[in-house]
């Protein structure tokens, strides 16, 4: 993706130089398995995740001192890339909100971190993968996740896989601003687990659709192979793909994010149409 020399966002906070000694259960153990099965690319991930992870991390984070270090040249470049992508989302969604009479777009923040992070939704570790916290309107990303996405889940490498993930999380910010996330939570409180999971799938697929809409508006920055990288990432994190890899079988009633096919379909629908009005995944899945 073309990005060098373009505007960077002022809403990025880089905490990667402040890491704790040790990994705080990141990347392995039962917490990572729970997160991978239920929360990978989560919507209001932080809000759901906090009660699970806080019990594991609070005592450890309190006892482990923080280290501060100089970022490597590669890390600095990755930070500049992430900041430019965030600026792209700001410009795009400001335009979309104006075009659709949705008022002024409220820009989210983004925090880059290593190992563990404190958020408005509670403490979390790198095991959570990238997530959006509706309480503080911020995205949280440990960039090491993208190595895991490639090595553990078989996604293609490339910078547009990162762009897809970030755009997906921005999609959850859009849902928060438009009131969709709140409506989903209310309906889930009135639903059984299976129905609640279906609502979660519809919400996640809509975030994929919004990621596609963002890509549609940013085609001037795309390079050959970028869309394939996004589709490879979407395919790798489908519920069915993850369940086959981790537990050896597929249980559709437990899906929370959608199948690989669904995630790719809705991303591409957003990319092809560029029209946020075409993203009613709830009617498509629940009726």
From TrEMBL:
Compartments, as annotated in UniProt: Membrane
Alphabetical keyword list: Hydrolase, Membrane, Metalloprotease, Protease, Transmembrane, Transmembrane helix
Topology relative to the membrane: Single-pass membrane protein
Spans annotated as Disordered: 1-23
Coiled coil: none
GO molecular function: metallopeptidase activity
Membrane-crossing segments per the record: 24-42
InterPro entries given in the database record: Uncharacterised_pept_Zn_put (IPR007343)
Record field: compositional bias (Polar residues): 1-11
One of the protein's GO biological processes: proteolysis
CC per GO annotation: membrane
PANTHER family named in the record: INNER MEMBRANE PROTEIN (PTHR30168:SF0), PUTATIVE MEMBRANE PROTEIN YPFJ (PTHR30168)
Record-given protein name: Metalloprotease
